[in-house]
Design brief:
By secondary structure, the protein is an alpha/beta fold. Helices cover 31% and strands 24% of the residues. Among the domains are: 46-143, no CATH class; 184-387; 496-609, no CATH class. It is rod-shaped and about 145 Å long. It starts with a helix and ends in a 6-residue tail after the last helix.
Length: 615
């Protein structure tokens, strides 16, 4: 190779080496510089909340950044929700928290960030009044807002919140957890100035405690799913399997547990106060062997609706959550003892079941219902009871197919102003479903029938009460009761005795007439009459004689002069037929008529004066 050619090649090699070194320098220094400049440009575009939160929460996820940006009051482009996923449609399958395990980490939002937004003065000042509105996020860590006064709405829709939510004595304008999957919620003493929404796909894997909560709006748990905690704390009430606890809560509006509401555990509503309705339509509550609903002492100023039809096949609920049962089903006891209802109670299209060895059915002892109590189209499992003892309703309405089995009806002390249907025969069968004899249900039914103008029906009821009363005393009781029934209707039909009296007197008249014709009636006064006095002896008048024998306090001077001679026997013609008349038989009959006269007269007086009546 020539020297000149070598020199040219060497120059090219050194040039390539220099260029390579320059490239490496650019990569080493310029790229980081450009990245830093780009980061500086991005930081300059961040919202105030993002900038403020970044100092406290480094490495913000995409969902956290979206939440902060959408919540910033200065963001004029904010949307209804801060969308953590890829779809703004709450019912898109990608926003179903049942599949939250498949979500990527960029959908995570730290619970501590949400708390920071609610308690940090600098952050609270720039949160939009619409509040925190989040869709389809995974909340990481326990969300603790106990004793926090949150000045804006808290809306966490279709979110996965697996750890316990602490809302003890918190204060918030609105709380919306619709569609979210949560763990236990401690909301004892929670104060919500608007609505509390725990439905439409909401799932709680543990007890939701809202004891002593104050809700100024309504509570809607439609199509919500609740479950008792698998491990309950060792405190009072443990072991009851409470899923939704509203003990002592005050709700200015209504409580809607409807449209596909399900609870695997007890609904605890004792001593709660509702300003409107309690709706359990299209609901299923299961707590086998225990109370499914315990609402002792609840006050419902509106209607109590259990099982009424509510959801249509074309409703939005049916479209999003499938076909919803339109009735009510309880697996366990439904307890509304001492409840006060300001309007109506309607239990229709309902099923009460559960294990026969546990408490099942409906208990409403000492209920006060100012409107109608309707019990129709109800199915009661074997052993299920219906208890309205010592209760007061305005109108009682039912149907025969909704009655419990014999021995499982408890209505002693139930009062009502009207009853439908009022068929006496059916109502007596209804009362007869009780175990043992209880006079009050008979008296109450008779009172209502009498006031409605059905006096004969009222008497039938009272007579039936007498039958039931004496039947409990065995054979002798039934015998005595039978006599009182056929004579004076247990004091309610006293003039029936007159017919018996007339029958006895007429029979005596006929027998004495036959005896006189047969010659078995002899003179009895004086024992040795003078011969000249025979023509003037008192003549025998059979009818007057029968009256004289029968009436205890009347003396017609017939019995004194004539009496049957037990030693005589004769023949008498009755309708052309000769019969033998025994004086001994006639004497026994007259003794029986004397006794019957005393008894029937006494029974008549007792019936007229009311001494024999038990009402």
């Amino acid at each position: 190779m020539k020297r000149a050619d070598w020199l040219v090649g060497a120059n090219f090699a050194w040039g390539d080496l220099l260029i390579a070194r320059l490239v490496r320098m650019v990569v080493r220094f310029a790229v980081p510089l450009l990245a830093a400049l780009a980061a500086g440009t991005a930081s300059a575009a961040d919202s105030s909340l993002v900038k403020l939160a970044s100092a406290r929460f480094p490495n913000l996820t995409r969902a956290e950044r979206t939440l902060l940006e959408n919540t910033d009051v200065e963001n004029d482009a904010r949307t209804d929700f801060a969308v953590a996923g890829v779809s703004a449609d709450p019912f898109d399958i990608s926003n179903d928290p049942a599949h939250a395990a498949d979500w990527d980490a960029q959908r995570n939002i730290r619970a501590s960030l949400i708390r920071w937004l609610c308690v940090t003065p600098g952050a609270v000042a720039i949160v939009d009044p619409g509040g925190i509105r989040l869709l389809g996020a995974r909340i990481v860590g326990g969300l603790d807002l106990s004793y926090v006064r949150i000045p804006f709405a808290l809306v966490l829709n279709h979110c996965a919140i697996p750890e316990r939510i602490h809302l003890h004595s918190a204060d918030v304008p609105q709380l919306d957890l619709n569609g979210s999957y949560t763990g236990e919620i401690d909301g004892e003493g929670l104060n919500v100035h608007g609505e509390l929404l725990l439905g439409y796909g909401f799932h709680a894997s543990g007890e939701v405690v809202l004891a002593d909560a104050k809700i100024d709006g309504y509570i809607d748990c439609g199509a919500g799913h609740f479950s008792h905690s698998k491990v309950e704390p060792q405190v009072w009430g443990a072991g009851l399997n409470k899923a939704l606890n509203l003990d002592g809560a005050t709700v200015r509006g209504a409580i809607f547990l409807w449209n596909g509401f399900e609870s695997d555990g007890m609904i605890y509503l004792s001593d709660a106060v509702l300003g409107a309705d309690l709706a359990l339509m299209g609901a299923r509550v299961s707590n086998p062997g225990q109370a499914a609903i315990l609402a002792y002492g609840i006050e419902v100023k509106g209607n109590l609706l259990i099982g009424s039809r509510s959801v249509g096949e074309n409703s939005s609920v049916a479209r999003h959550f499938g076909k919803v049962s339109q009735g009510f089903q309880a697996d366990g006891l439904v307890e509304f003892g001492a409840a006060h209802v300001g309007a109506n109670v309607a239990v229709t299209h309902a099923k009460f079941g559960g294990p026969a060895d546990g408490p099942i059915g409906f208990e409403g002892q000492e209920m006060l219902v100012r409107g109608a109590f309707t019990w129709t189209d109800v199915s009661l499992a074997k052993g299920a009871k219906f208890d309205l003892s010592a209760s007061a309703v305005n109108v009682f309405i039912d149907d025969e197919r909704s009655w419990p089995a014999p021995g499982n009806l408890f209505i002693d002390g139930l009062t009502y102003q009207g009853i439908d249907p009022s068929d006496v025969g059916a109502r007596l069968r209804w009362i007869g479903l009780q175990s043992g004899f209880h006079p009050q249900p008979y008296r109450q039914l008779a009172k209502v029938l009498h006031e409605s103008g059905d006096d004969s029906g009222a008497v039938k009821v009272l007579v039936a009460a007498g039958d039931a009363r004496y039947a409990q005393y065995g054979l002798m009781g039934r015998l005595v009761g039978g006599i009182l029934r056929v004579t004076i209707g247990y004091g309610h039909q006293p003039f029936r005795t007159i017919l018996w009296m007339m029958g006895v007197i007429i029979l005596g008249w006929l027998l004495v007439t036959a005896g006189a014709r047969a010659g078995v009636m002899r003179r009895t006064w004086p024992d040795s009459p003078p011969p000249g006095e025979a023509a003037a002896y008192e003549k025998l008048h059979p009818l007057l004689y029968s009256l004289d024998v029968f009436l205890p306090f009347v003396n017609l001077h017939q019995e004194h002069y004539w009496w049957a001679d037990a030693e005589r026997t004769g023949e008498s013609s009755v309708l052309g037929v000769k019969i033998r008349v025994s004086g001994a038989f006639l004497r026994y009959y007259l003794w029986t008529q004397v006794i019957a006269g005393w008894l029937l007269s006494a029974i008549f007086v007792a019936g007229v004066t009311g001494l024999m009546r038990n009402d």
